[in-house]
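Please go through the sequence line and C-alpha cell line underneath and see whether the fold suits the sequence. See right below:
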Amino acid sequence: MRWENLREATTTVEQTALFDHTPPPARGTGRAGLQTAGPGPVQAGQDGEPVAIEVRARSIINRVPGDSPLFRWSVNPYRGCSHACVYCFARRTHEYLDLDSGRDFDTRIVVKVNAGERLRTELARPSWRGEHIAMGTNTDPYQRAEGRYRLMPQIIAALRDAANPFSILTKGTLVLRDLDLLEQAARVTEVGMAVSVGSVDETVWRTVEPGTPGPRARLDVVRRLAKRGLECSVLMAPILPGLTDSAEQIEETVAAIAEAGAARVTPIVLHLRPGAREWYRAWLAREHPRLLPLYRKLYARGSYTPDSYQRIVTTAVREIADRHGLNRPGPARRNRALRNPAEPPGDHRPEQLALGFPGQGPP
C-alpha cells in the first residue's frame, strides 16, 4: 500500500484489538469490529476482518480539486469508510493507495492519527486565510473508527479556537457525542450541519448502506441538533432509480425529514462514477437484477442520469418539501444575506451541489 512509510508502529497488544470486549452486533448497525493492521505491508484484495491502518499525515487541510462553487478546502481524517455504502462515489480514491475500490474501501480504513495536531498547526500559519472547511464530503468523519480514535473532538476544538467556519455532513449518530463542542464552535463562527438520508425505506437501507445507522436514527440526530439550537439540513441522497424514487417513498421520506425538524432538504439523484459504478452494478445484479435494463438506459451516457429524470425527481421533492414547510430561510440565513446585500436573489448553481452549508446561499 502507498503511504507505508507514514504508518504508525503497531506492536503492542493494546494497539492490536480495538474492540476486544464488544461482541459483533447485527449487520446494518454500523458497529462491526475493527482491528489495527499488523506490522507487515497491507495487501490489496484480501479477505478478512476490517482493519484500521494508522498513519501520520503530513498535511490535513486539502484543496478541493477543480473550481467548486461550494468550498475550496476540506479535512478528511479517514480514508475508506466502514459505512460500506455500495454507491459511494469516493470508492475510487482507495485505488490511489494501491487498494481496491470494493471490499478494501469498506474494510481497510486509513486513520490519520495526528489529524487534530496537524490542523492546529495549519490553521495557525500566517498564509491561512480562515476559509470555510468542509468535512464529510469524501468519507464520513463519524464512521465506526471514530468511536475509537476520537479525532473529531480534536478537529472541532481546533476550528473553534481559531474561529474558523466549517461544515459537517454525516450519516453517523456518533456526532451527538460532540454536541457541546459544536455548540461552543457555533458561538464564535459559522457551523453548518447536515445529515444524509436518502430514504426511510429500511429494507433498502439494510442492503445498500449496511454499515450505517438506520435512517430513523439519523433523523433523530437532526431532531437533537435542532433542540440544541444547531440548525441542521438533510441531504436526501442518493435517490435510487427504481428503488427509492416513487412518489409514495419520496412523500414518506420528506415528511419524516420535516417532522425531525430539519431546516431544509436537498435532493440528489444517484450518480455512478468509475469505481463506484462497477461495485454498485455488481450489487444491483445480485439484489435487483430486474432493474439492470433501467440502469443501462439511465446511465448510458455516463455517471449521471438524464436532466429530464433529475428534474422530475428534484421537483417532486421540492414541492413536497414546500408543503411541509421546509427550505424556508431561517434567521441565520437572513443574517448572511444582510451581510452580503449585493448578492442577487436566488441561486443558479446546479441543484445537486446546494447542500445548505454556511456561505452557500439558499438551496
Observations:
- The longest helix spans residues 307-323.
- The first strand starts at residue 35 and ends at 36.
- DSSP finds 13 helices and eleven strands in the chain.
